[in-house]
Write a structure and sequence with these properties.
alpha+beta, ten-stranded antiparallel β-sheet, six-stranded antiparallel β-sheet, 20 helices, 44 strands, 25% strand, binds alpha-D-glucopyranose
Length: 812
């Protein structure tokens, strides 16, 4: 397959520059940092929402459409008989020049046609509930240009799920108001909603449309809306059907002249008793105020500069200089950026997650936190409390919760037995970063029920206990509905295609289904828990849990070792999964990752053998597959995992999320060459260089899955952006490869590098301190020989924390 290039990195501006609009798949970016969010593709497709992609959707989107990625914020420019869009779509009029720059929470799309340049800067200003679209039109020709400009947004009737199905109601509810250059969307505001949206432009308009059918025409498409093609807005007022917002502006440009238009897509909430300014008329006070804050180029430029400064500050917390651009750009820019995005969205809204299906995952969000906690610790703190609040008194927990209500999701329920352990993982990371032990004393409810509060520490304790109280016949953890691998459904037994593998648990009575993945996770997080208990003076609790951890280690050594690698699980009947004795799927990655991270049986050579087996059986050109060989048939006792065709998803796909587990295992074992070669295989910048066409999805971020060696098309990526891979790649490279590890009392320095690594420097802000750490590897893969802090030798490998600026030299 010929590998075409569609773009390139621009590290100086921290942008990915797309130079061909016909990317192999929509290459998207995210706007917004806290409450108001947008997804935007390289042709300006996508949608916006407030906090929750399901319950508070502002603009409409159709998924998996024909053509793909139709609908978005579109500007139509009619120049004589030519109609075109700066982002090429939807008209697809060939452009003289096209460029899309995806940056840190902003996207700039530029097109040129017949001497006119149109450039649109899209971003959500900090702390504002609005998306700015600053359109600059420039006449680069020698003639006067008379342009007709049409904007376009399509409203979603708020609940993105019912918006796509309940048409008997929806087609009668749509309501708008028009005032000057602002179009207001107020569907359902008359009754229970206290929010509306608006679309404004900071210029007088010569017309508008708010009814989709009138604007587009029932037999036309986004590519040729009737009003645009005829150059005549209809001034339509939507009643029901599908309300939209389109401004019409006549623009005259002298040769060389350029004009800015600031379009603003905003969201407003009003108090119950301030909803209306007159019967049926919405109270627009807050909208006017928001508009006034962003109605000139100067104000918008200032807001944009503030956003850029915000990202400067975030990305200044951890900065590496290795001299390897491919590594530096991922560590300093894109990996950290993706971590912020996954922290914000969990697995809810991407071009692979519709935003209507899933809320925030318990395990997912705890992992995401680890990629994000150094950036904005207070938000991580709040997240931990929110997550823990969805726990049950027995330590089990809701698998997901909705960000808007923060309540557990009853459709999915609980019963995923790895979930509780992740709370330890997230909390420990938070305390190590911040030194804020006070979080352990926060009072946190169960299932969000007021009056049930106990300390967060108590939540951690019952999390550990949940594992101990749910052990199977080999004294290994019972798996429940599934562990990290949502598709290993050992208590499900389903022949009914209408049943969900995740929520069906037909046969848990008397189950012997145990998980080695949870066993390893329990040992890793158990050791962390023990250390934490010691640190806060709970010696008895530390001793109690140490015993449980030791017992688990023994159980794994005794019942979890297959000779060359760790088993994956025992099934309902107590039969081995992931064993040489099995017909298919003899080895799985998850237990190799967790048990090597836990160093179980290292003294007996188990760790080294397991890591070697990963190389031998799981590794391929594009990364390590999840299991090998792939399942070729559906196995009733195993569930969804065997439902996927060979090489995809959880059936022997390269599930990027779990590659870092093995890489960390390699790092702990001190095998720097192997760690690096696994890492580079799934590092986007290396893939970008080689495989843009094959890889298909965005080359600047990790995707959840790359098709594995047994697949029809090995190396093809899917499910980009929202994946635990982001946090795990970050955790791996920042703490284990480059070796800068936050700890309770300071920063632990313990790199694990390929022999070829040269000297490098990490600038790390940590609490009130700033460290400039230079590492001299001297060809070593692992092992710190000496450290100096501001010229003074340090004992051991932890640089003791003290505020202020410090210089650290490390010799390996
Ligand atoms: C998805 C889920 C995650 C799960 C993984 C493996 O990424 O978000 O929770 O662990 O799949 O099944
Ligand atoms: C499917 C996917 C898995 C995901 C799960 C979430 O099982 O294969 O990756 O975690 O759905 O519900």
């Amino acid at each position: 397959m010929e590998q075409k290039r569609y773009g390139h990195f621009d590290d100086q501006h921290r942008e990915y520059v797309i130079t061909d609009p016909q990317t192999p798949w929509p290459w998207i970016n995210y706007l917004g940092n806290e409450d108001f969010f947008s997804l935007i593709s390289n042709t300006a497709g996508g949608y916006s929402f407030y906090k929750d992609a399901k319950f508070r959707r502002i603009t409409r989107y159709r998924y998996n459409n024909v053509p793909m990625d139709n609908g978005g914020r579109y500007f139509y420019i009619k120049d004589g008989d030519t109609v075109w869009n700066p982002g090429w779509k939807p008209c697809k009029t060939p452009l003289d020049f096209y460029e899309c720059r995806h940056g840190m929470s902003y996207t700039r799309i530029m097109g040129r046609k017949n001497g006119v340049e149109a450039s649109v800067l899209f971003f959500v200003p900090l702390k504002k509930w609005a998306e700015v679209q600053k359109l600059t039109l420039k006449n680069e020709s020698k003639e006067v240009k008379q342009l007709k400009l049409f904007s376009f947004e399509e409203w979603c009737l708020w609940n993105a799920a019912t918006d796509m199905e309940n048409f008997q109601r929806n087609f009668s509810t749509g309501e708008v108001e028009i005032e000057g250059s602002t179009i207001y969307h107020k569907t359902e505001y008359r009754e229970r909603r206290n929010h509306y949206a608006f679309y404004h432009v900071n210029a007088p308009i010569q017309g508008f449309d708010t009814d989709r059918e009138t604007f587009v025409g029932l037999y036309n498409e986004f590519a040729d809306p009737q009003a645009v093609m005829e150059g005549k807005p209809r001034n339509s007022h939507a009643h029901g059907w599908s309300p939209i917002a389109s401004h019409y502006i006549e623009v005259t440009l002298q040769p060389g002249e350029s004009k800015d238009f600031v379009f603003l897509l905003g969201y407003i909430e009003n108090e119950q008793d301030e909803k209306f300014e007159a019967p049926q008329v919405i109270n627009k006070k807050k909208a006017h105020a928001l508009i006034a804050e962003l109605d000139t180029t100067e104000k918008v430029d200032k807001a944009f500069a503030a956003l850029c400064e915000y990202w400067d500050a975030l990305l200044n917390i951890y900065k590496v200089k290795t001299g390897n651009d491919k590594l530096d750009r991922m560590v300093n820019i894109w990996n950290q950026y993706q971590c912020m995005v996954t922290f914000n969205f969990s697995r809810s809204a991407s071009f692979f997650e519709s935003g209507v299906g899933r809320g925030m995952g318990f395990r997912d969000s705890n992992q995401d936190l680890v990629g994000f906690v150094h950036q904005i610790p207070p938000r991580a703190r709040q997240r931990i409390i929110d997550i823990a609040s969805t726990q049950f008194p027995d330590g089990g927990c809701y698998h997901q919760y909705q960000p808007l209500t923060k309540r557990g999701n009853n459709d999915i329920g609980g019963g995923f037995n790895d979930d509780p352990c992740w709370l330890i993982f997230g909390t420990v990371a938070y305390i190590k970063e911040t030194g804020d032990f006070s979080i352990l004393d926060e009072m946190v409810p169960f299932d969000n029920q007021p009056g049930t509060e106990v300390t967060l520490f108590e939540h951690l304790k019952i999390s550990m206990d949940h594992v101990i109280k749910n052990l199977g016949p080999h004294m290994l953890p019972l798996i429940g509905r599934a562990d990290w691998n949502d598709c290993l459904n050992l208590n499900c037994f389903s022949w009914d295609p209408n049943e969900s593998f995740q929520t069906t648990e037909n046969v848990s009575e008397g189950t012997k289904a145990e998980s080695l993945m949870i066993a390893g996770l329990f040992v890793v997080t158990g050791k962390d828990y023990v250390a934490l208990c010691k640190k806060i003076g709970k010696a008895d609790e530390a001793a109690r849990m140490q015993q449980a951890v030791d017992a688990m280690i023994e159980a794994v050594k005794k019942h979890g070792w297959d000779g060359e690698w760790y088993l994956r699980a025992y099934d309902f009947y107590g039969r081995k999964i992931g064993s040489n004795e099995c017909e298919e799927a003899k080895i799985f990655i998850e237990s190799q990752g967790w048990c090597t991270m836990a160093e179980i049986g290292a003294e007996d050579g188990m760790v080294a053998k397991s890591l070697d087996s990963c190389k031998k059986y799981l590794e391929c050109e594009h990364g390590m597959v999840l299991n090998n060989p792939a399942f070729t048939k559906y196995i009733y006792e195993y569930g969804e995992i065997s439902s996927y065709p060979e090489g995809y998803k959880e059936n022997a796909g390269i599930f990027c999320h779990n590659n870092p587990w093995v890489i960390i295992g390699e790092c702990i074992a001190g095998r720097g060459n192997d760690a690096w070669s696994h890492y580079a295989k799934i590092l986007p910048s290396y893939v970008e260089e080689k495989y843009q066409t094959l890889h298909k999805v965005e080359p600047y971020v990790n995707c959840q899955m790359v098709a594995g060696k047994d697949a029809f098309k090995p190396g093809e990526g899917k499910n980009s952006w929202l994946t635990g891979t982001a946090a795990w790649m970050w955790y791996t490279v920042s703490e284990f490869i480059l070796g800068i590890k936050p700890d309770y009392d300071g920063i632990r320095i313990d790199p694990c590098l390929p022999e070829t690594a040269s000297d490098y420097t990490v600038c790390r802000k940590f609490r009130e301190a700033e460290y400039e750490i230079t590492i001299h590897p001297n060809g070593a893969q692992k092992g710190v020989r000496s450290i100096t802090l501001d010229g003074q030798p340090v004992n051991g490998t932890v640089i003791p924390y003290s505020a202020g600026k410090h210089v650290v030299e490390v010799t390996m």
